[in-house]
User: Fold this.
Amino acid sequence: MILKLLFGDPNARVVRSLRPLLDRVNALESEFQALDDATLAHQTVAFRERLAGGATIEQILPEAFAAVRESARRVLGQRHYDVQLVGSMVLHRGQIAEMRTGEGKTLTATAAVYLNALAGKGVHVVTVNDYLARRDAAWMGKVYAALGMRVGCLNHETAYVYDPGHVATAEPPPADEAEVTADTTGAYKVVHEFLRPVHRRDAYLADITYGTNNEFGFDYLRDNMVSRAEDMVQRGHYYAIVDEVDSILIDEARTPLIISASAEGATDQYRQFAALVRKLEPTKDYVVDEKLRAVTLTEEGITHMESLLGVQNLYAEGVRIVHQLEQALRAHALYQHDREYVVRDGEVIIVDEFTGRLMHGRRYSEGLHQAIEAKEGVAIQRESLTLATITFQNYFRLYEKLAGMTGTAATEAEEFAKIYRLDVVTIPTHRPMVRRDLADRIYRTEAAKWRAVVAEVKERHAQGQPILLGTISIEKNEQLHALLEREGVPHAMLNAKNHEREGEIIAQAGRRGAVTLATNMAGRGVDIILGGNPPEASEQEAVRASGGLHVIGTERHESRRIDNQLRGRAGRQGDAGSSQFFIALSDDLMRIFAGERLQRMMERLGVPDEVPIENRIVTKQIEGAQRKVEHHHFDTRKHLLEYDDVLNKHREVIYRKRRDVLTALDPVAVVTDMLEQVSERIVAAHTPGERMDLWELDALQRAAGAMIPLDEAAIAALQIPLEHGDGKLGAAEVRTALVRTLTDATQRSIDQLRLRVANDEAFRGLIRAVVLRAMDELWIEHLDAIEHLRHGIGLRGYGQRDPLVEYKREAYRLFTSLLALIQEDVVRAIAHAAPTMAQVQSVFADMPMQFSAPAKEMTKREGESIGVAAPAAVTTSDASDTASGPHVGRNDPCPCGSGKKYKKCHGA
Assistant:
């Protein structure tokens, strides 16, 4: 605050600096209004000609923005407000535009999208679900089409282009039933007649492509699994605008996209441990740390479990058994039905902690999902093998320029700046915001809080005021539903169990006297309009007179941003509205971070249960607790990214090499280069130093023969001293000759293989397939090895080593080994095996794949997997690592951080 007084508000300075540019756009408005439709559409061609002639995007900006504003006015009847153009300028600069709910973010993006699409490299607009991608492509497609630009749209397993002349015979299948309802009863109807189905590649070839973060990310991974270059669909990563950027780049930053396939797994043990952990007693046999989301067996618990299993030492039974036990205990003690997950049709489905939506197709990793399935008594699906993976953090950093829009980003400005190099700019509202944010009401008990909430709802409902109630879980949602039902208060209920009606419920939440229950931010992207949708004038006035939409939060979320999103549902575009949070000292956030002191204070003051505290100091204390949690989550995400960046560099190298092979006119040249490197390594390994009499030529011959067919001439050349003229060659020259002997022998095998193949094109296809198969097989193994390394590296910290430095060193060793193994596999396959196309089909051919982002098992736990080694760490630590650490006594705590004695853990 003091800095703002001294130097002024930096955000206001940024907005003011854009004013001259805005004035130039406004000055062009009448000129563009005078153009006929054909001339307006021709502006795109004219702009591109100017760019080709040396003009810059910045020079064209005022005219391009004026053209988009005029196009929107003609085809949509909506003219960009000045603040929307300012927002679009911010987006063009590669920043985040924070715009309040109802300010028109969808229209705001169009000017920046159009301007950057003029470069012809493709612009991606990222939405949070398939429905919004279809809606925005069909809705904004009119604006772009009037300017002569093509618009594509990606949905799950389908793709479209916007085509005003297309008449669909049927609407395309949506991703789920929720989107059917949201489509027909939400704020806008998707005009499917104008969405023409096309091949996915064609959607990417459009000037502008709308789609979800998942679709863009999975397409990137799939492109790096194809066997032919023509099967790739993306054409690069030039510019992306991410809608609801906080949801995608913050909430889902810990959610890697994973393409996997089923691997064999033991399901019986999961069921056995699910039954056994029920016999353990909390506190006595295990302790739960809610802050860290961790659960640990006590000494008594270990003894009890050993007794139940009939073994003397639990940790001598193998790391897999221990891992499954730990996951069963986590499933039992930390993951609750109707909170972290629901069971539907015999399937465990994760509930998104931020939105309350069901996350179909997503699974917890590392056997946790199987442990929950065993706990709930449903069919256990086999563990999966990762084929390809990338985090959203690293996917979106592929773009040359990235921007975003949201209603709530300021609280996460530090993370956006440090992780993505994105500045947050708050855009002024078109009309002044008049929403009243009332002080929190804090009650001693949860029962008192619920009674107060119901009383407040009944009072406001009687006055005809619409009310939106936000809960943080399905369980609380249903609890409040039961209370309102008992009191006879009519209401609509929205949670992940019935989100099929999501659009309809949210659209009508502004009707007079409407009471709507929602989990967190369900219904994001659909406006709540006072008077309902479509609004009735008389009802709208009655609702305004009653105070507008009143939002009641029934619990503070760990993140201030989520609370602000809930508040933001009221008071859109200058509407009347209000918000208030009702809190109990037993709420999770209060109980864990701030409850005890307040509880003692209320008891000391003799505050009755029904009397709430409304105090700014207490509210600040709550916000302080939220800041602590947010900072903890940020540190965790940053820590995870430091580790993931290591794998990301590996992925970049492998994917680049893979693309080179796919697009190479002559892949044989790639193999020739590999052959030379393999030959050089074999020779170097067996010819140390300058004394040739000490060289191990027999061992060299055996090593080479295992990889390359050696004829008699080659064997002889490897054994006899090589001379040139009257004098002997030096060691370096002899090594060069030995390498040439090996490469010549391999080349003869390659030439023989070429003779067996029908023609040169078929031969090149065969070579390409061999290289790709070797790369793909070994890359999958590398992903598994890196995952094991990552979980075990924490032990190095107890040997006075930095785990991250050790992880980078070990990962580099694994990666150099991977590159060498790829080369050796390729050379061996071509020179020794004489493969056919049938033998070298893609690793991924006919493989049933799962596409999921399963690691959303909450950030608190994920950081732990790095900082604390899993028992499997012993398999990744060599003898030197153990020797260099401090001596650990048998009764000392195990350095792995498990809390167990060394003799009962890694000292077993």
In short: Residues 436-623 form a domain with the Rossmann fold fold (CATH 3.40.50.300). The chain has a mean pLDDT of 81.
